[in-house]
Amino acid sequence: MNVADQTLKKGLSTNDKIKIIIILAVPAVIENFFQTMLGFADTFFVAQIGLDEVSAVGVTNAILAIYFAIFMAIGVGVNVLMANATGAGDYERASKVAQQGVILTTIVGGLTGMLTLIFAEPLLSLLGVEQQVLEIGVVYFRIVAVPSILMAYMFVMSSILRGVGDTKSPMKAVIIANIVNIILDYIFIFGFLFIPALGIVGAGLAGVIARLVGTFVLILYIKKNNQIMFQKNWWRFDKVYQKELLGLGAPAAGERLAMRIGQVVYFGFIVALGTSTFAAHQIAGNIETFSYMIAYGFAAAATIIVGKQVGAGNYEEAKSYAKLISILSAVFMVFMGVLLFILGEWIGGFFSEDPVVVSEISIALKIAALFQPFLAILLILTGAYQGARNTKYPMYLTTIVMWLIRTLFVYLLAIQMQLGIAGVWVAIGIDIVIRAVVMWYRMEKDKWIKSKKKMSFKDKVECQCHPKTKQPNMNECVNNY
């Protein structure tokens, strides 16, 4: 029995639950730390070249974030369905879900690569950047995103391993990829021995090679995992499984896309404040992501644990774990907030020597520090809702609050009230608090687990947990609702 399966034991004390949560969360936190380092290293090294290059990486990442939203959504579907299946003791179904996830990832990753190749310049132009930034950005964007299938594979293969409760292997793969990226960043950007200095092109190439290495490492770990049983005759597009994956993944993608598209819109407002302010915003965002690594790690644990509890029909235990993980994460994030508040300006000095940019970085991080506990609760509950097969509500909430609160308040505070970068980050904080409070309230009212819905007669008749089974298996169907 792996660590995640131990949560299904009856009569565990709070201390026992905390130990299990920590064991699952810590590898995911470390994984997120090194995943963050992939973007951090690029920004750090590119910042030594110039602000135009930093902005080019920033606008590229704004578009890539939309790609990531899609890839992560597929990963959510795979992770949740596998956790539900393993919670019900059905490892064959979990393996089929994993293989169908790889098939879907291959299709989507190939399409995003083609989209980048053809429409790189028009996509970046939507952000309204200056011409010199656009020219640099198009080159970088094509290098990193034409082979975006590698990004997709890393997201989904990590989700496959987490779906069976393995958070250590994705951590190891990301660490290896990160080491490769940092070494190659330095060599390719600045040159070394016979290798010429390639600048921002070198940063892009380093990232691609690092993701290629990470993908192969993940494949090796999947092959070694005896709970994942891939079979040749399952490598066929299966409409039933794909419908389940899309049923969970599409709302998760919608939630992330609503967030990312909203970001593209208010990025246009920030760009209007000037290149230095936009660069400061990007740098501050990269620094703040180090606090995200803790919350995302605990969110991964929440998805796994809640998914297994829901798969086993233990709804009250699912709620108990969701609340406990939220509180634990919020405590850790308070500590991260203190660090951001105190050290923000000092850290910003590593990225830029421009006193205006450094000052704006400091302002942004001080404001961000105040909202860290709410950010923790929001991210953990999003993961918990997903584990409970409820991906639609986070999508609805994010869409409404993102567009009616965050984007509107960025415009009002930063542009109309001329608060600049302070207005941007206050608006972001207001958005975070509102969503965290609403999601906690719905959980308290038991309006968050989709499995509690009663199936209609039609659902019962049509439910097929195994695509090849002609007669419905009601026990397993109920576990998957």
Largest sheet: none
Question: What is the count of helical runs?
Answer: 16
When the domains are counted, the total is 1
List the uncertain runs: 451-481
End-to-end C-alpha gap? 24 Å
Helix content: over 70%
Task: Provide the gyration radius in Å.
Answer: 22 Å
Order of helices and strands: HHHHHHHHHHHHHHHH
Summing up helix and strand content along with how strands pair, one would put the structural category as: mainly alpha
Instruction: Report the sheet-strand fraction.
Output: under 5%
The total strand number stands at: 0
Query: Globular, elongated, flat, extended or rod-shaped: what is the shape?
Result: globular
Mean residue pLDDT: 82
Membrane topology: Multi-pass membrane protein
Transmembrane segments: 20-41, 61-81, 102-120, 140-161, 173-195, 201-222, 264-284, 290-312, 324-343, 363-381, 393-414, 420-441
Main location: membrane
Family: Belongs to the multi antimicrobial extrusion (MATE) (TC 2.A.66.1) family.
What are the defining features of this structure?
481 residues; mainly alpha; single chain; MATE_MdtK
Give the structure's gist in a few sentences.
With 481 residues, the protein is mainly alpha-helical. It is built from 16 helices and no strands. Helix 5 runs parallel beside helix 7 (200-224).
